[in-house]
Amino acid sequence: MQDMVAGIAAPVERGLAWLNTFWPAIAATIGVVLAVWVTLHVAQHKRDARAAAAWTGLVWLVPVLGAALYLMLGVNRIQRRARQLTGGGIDAALRAGAEQGTPLQTDQLQALARLVGRLTRLPLTGGNRVSLMEAPTALAAMIEAVDQARDSVFLATYIFGNDAAGRPLADALVRAHRRGVQVRVLVDGVGALYSLPPITGYLRRRGVPVQRFLHSMAPWRMPYMNLRNHRKLMVVDRALGFTGGANIRAGYIQTPARIQDLHARLEGPAVAHLLLSFAADWVFTCGEVLDDNYVGELNAGGVQARGINAGPDADFDKRRLTLMAAIGAAEREIRIVTPYFVPDQTLLATLQLAILRGVRLVIMVPEKNNLRLVQWASLHAIKWLAREGAEVYFSAPPFDHTKLLTVDGHWVQFGSGNWDARSLRLNFEFDLECYDDPLAETANVLIDQRLDRARPMSDADFRAMARWRHIRNALAHLLEPYL
């Protein structure tokens, strides 16, 4: 027996001794092979040269770990997986409908409409009614709509709090489910964790079909932590829609409110675009194909509107290109309200060119952001626009989560998307573009109300800022591709 043990132990000891001698060379070889593979993959698949350079530098400077991070966060297989789940049916539905040449206010807007139509493969629909609402009003309207639902309720959101805002809506969804309404709820896998215990368990125990987008407790099944579904959509009876920037959180409705936001009630053919977006996300998540045929009014109002899906899949860069086109179409004024303003260099240059053309640029961001790093990076980007002549305002508390863009009093865009790399490249977003003067006037009134309480920040104010703050902001802005 001892001879047998000794016979086994001797080769093991020799193997360990060999590893002890050569492990640095083995580790170096593995690190180099992985770094070369990642470099080649990055070179072929990354459109953004800065992101490509950052990943390449990381895998060479941090061997093995850098490659592991790239495999977890840098490789995008979402589009391929989505097509496997949908069988191409949703792709075909999203391509349906040729661009309709509807007369608009200016030639520039006509060109913008054609461009966005080609990007989205969706028609610009007439006959819509769009009602902009502050978040508390919108939440009450959503609960009322669910209670009146007779056929279906489809809800997608990033955050669905298990709190004073979320539970009343959850209870309305439960009531709808119990009276035979087809209820489907989709919550982002990370966003669901903003409230513990998650509202998903509350709904599931009461029989409501609910899913988490890209969620799994097993790390090997959750390789897309940075790809989040940030969309906020609700469609009732395949006829009435709600969309905007508001999550479902108690901070909106408490007294005093901690957050303010904008949402909208939508009637008309553009609701079909919300339906298509939800149906695609739902079948991607769980494989169930829903009826996405719009059955509502065809002439509910006078707004021409179109949904814009954006994400790291087949919809990559659609939102960024839409923003650039809208800025280029501006002749008089651009107004931007956003909580996170860290545009890339191309968007920043496009805004600078608009100012040089004589377009008035108004930018409003929160005075106190909930993400300090983003706020510092934002200050660095904004100061260059302020030097060119942009009007910069810091909105007073509560934290303003509104995402709103108007151009020349004719064009309005609102939804879930921000002006940062996460929204422009990584998140799944949904925005609505609208061509309508009365709606643009309503949006500008809402902006004016915020401007009345905001603090202007001039170029002189930026120049008077302490030098260490400029350095801090510049260092934060170096992380722009990741914010």
TrEMBL record:
Please indicate if the UniProt record lists Membrane as a keyword.
yes
Extract the InterPro entries matched here. CLS_N, PLD-like_dom, PLipase_D/transphosphatidylase
Domain of life the protein comes from:
Bacteria
Alphabetical list of Gene3D superfamilies matching this protein: Endonuclease Chain A
- Known PROSITE patterns for this protein? PLD
The cellular location(s) given in this protein's UniProt record come to: Cell membrane
| Protein's recorded name | Cardiolipin synthase
Species name: Alloalcanivorax profundimaris
